[in-house]
Amino acid sequence: MADPIGFLIPILVFGSLVLMLAWTRKGKELQAFLASCVYLAGMLGGVVFALYPVVLPASTDPAYSLTIYSAAAAHHGLSVGLVWWTLGMILALGYFVFIYRMFRGKVQLEGGGY
After folding, report:
1. Phi, psi for 67 (deg, rounded to 5)
2. In this structure, how many other beta carbons lie within 10 angstroms of the beta carbon of residue 60?
3. Whole-model pTM?
4. What is the DSSP string of 83-98?
5. Residues 14-49: pLDDT tens digits?
6. From 68's CA, which of 21, 77, 87, 110 has a CA 20 to 30 Å away?
7. 55: three-class secondary structure by DSSP
8. Distance (Å, whole) CA 20 – CA 110
9. For the CA atoms of the chain, what is the radius of gyration?
10. DSSP H or E segment with residue 56
11. Percentage, residues of the chain above pLDDT 70
12. Which residues of 93-102 are buried (b: 16+ CB within 10 A; e: fewer)?
């Protein structure tokens, strides 16, 4: 057992799946949505944990696999990218807050629609 924290990932995934299904049946939509977010993050985290340090495994020879060491950019590129990523995420977050506030609430069908 190289890293015992790896046992927590399946527990997180299974627990969030059970909660998602239970809260969906009870009509607790927000809790079910948040549980599905945890489920997806846990599944992705499990893949990352299982493949680390490989980012993209090669099908021909493991020597050709893309690893975190071979895929890393230079320090200056990472610094510039971090600044632009931060600004972009702030802009995207502001946009989503604006859009979700503009269209908040459940959709109500008027008349005899489908």
Report:
1. -110, 170
2. 7
3. 0.65
4. HHHHHHHHHHHHHHHH
5. 999 999 999 999 999 999 999 999 999 999 999 999
6. 87
7. strand
8. 30
9. 21
10. strand 54-56
11. 96
12. eeeeeeeeee
Surface-to-core class of residue 54, CB atoms within 10 Å of its CB (0-12 exposed, 13-18 middle, 19+ buried): middle
φ/ψ of residue 106, rounded to 5: -85, 155
Pairing mode of beta strands 54-56, 66-67: antiparallel
- Residues in a beta bridge with 67: 54
Neighbours of 58 (CB within 10 A): 11
Residues 73, 55 contacting (CB under 8 angstroms): no
